[in-house]
Amino acid sequence: MDKKTFKEFCKNEFETHGFKKQRNVFYLTGHDLLCGIDLQKSNYGDVYYVNYYYFIGEFEAITGYPTHYESDIQGRITVMSRKQTSHGKQFMTAQIEYEEYTEEELRPFFERAFEEEILPPVDHGKSFILDNIGKLYSLTMHKEEVIQKLKS
Q1: Partners of 50 in the beta sheet?
Q2: Fewer CB within 10 Å: C terminus or N terminus of the chain?
Q3: 108-114: Cβ within 8 A, 24+ apart
Q4: What is the rounded distance in angstroms from the CA atom of residue 92 to the CA atom of residue 76?
Q5: How far apart are CA 29 and CA 105, in angstroms?
Q6: How far is it between the farthest Cα atoms of the chain?
Q7: Is residue 91 within 8 Å of 74, Cβ to Cβ?
């Protein structure tokens, strides 16, 4: 698929799962967190990353949306590689070479990510993230601060 089709596919997937666009990021409010999802163009070719973020706290009445720089937890949707191999085998990668896929081929990877990683914290709260640190989610920056937010 071409870049325009890929971006439209992503927009439709985000909106289908309840996300609303604010500037260049799509957001969905959960009970005790906010989830954001966006596209990041690679500087090294026709590749995109689909990043998702969690902002821990109350976001019922949002006036100004946070940026990914303010996020507490970050992740990326992964897909099975096409051209890239390791020891002759394909592998899961966050680098989506969109020209190598059709919508039908990408959809199962997006569905799995939404069902297993992205939406459970929105539906079940920050405790889901806390229970799955090291399994589904990893802390990269301000670890102690984020753990405190998750436990409070």
Answers
A1: 39
A2: C
A3: 109/77, 109/78, 109/79, 109/80, 110/13, 110/50, 110/77, 113/50, 113/52, 113/77, 113/78, 114/13, 114/17
A4: 11
A5: 29
A6: 50
A7: no
Q: Is 97:83 a contact under the CB 8 Å cutoff?
A: yes
- Give yes or no for a contact between 38 and 25, defined as CB atoms under 8 angstroms apart: yes
Tokens of 110: 């997006």
H/E stretch holding 92: strand 92-93
Domain residues for the domain of 117 are 3-151
Mean pLDDT, contiguous 10-residue spans, the chain (152 residues): 97 98 94 95 94 91 85 96 89 96 97 98 96 91 92 93
The count of domains in the chain is 1
> What 8-state DSSP symbol labels residue 68?
G
Give the pairing of strands 25-29 and 33-41: antiparallel
45: alpha, beta or left? (left if phi > 0; alpha if psi -120 to 50): left
**53, two tokens:** 């973020």
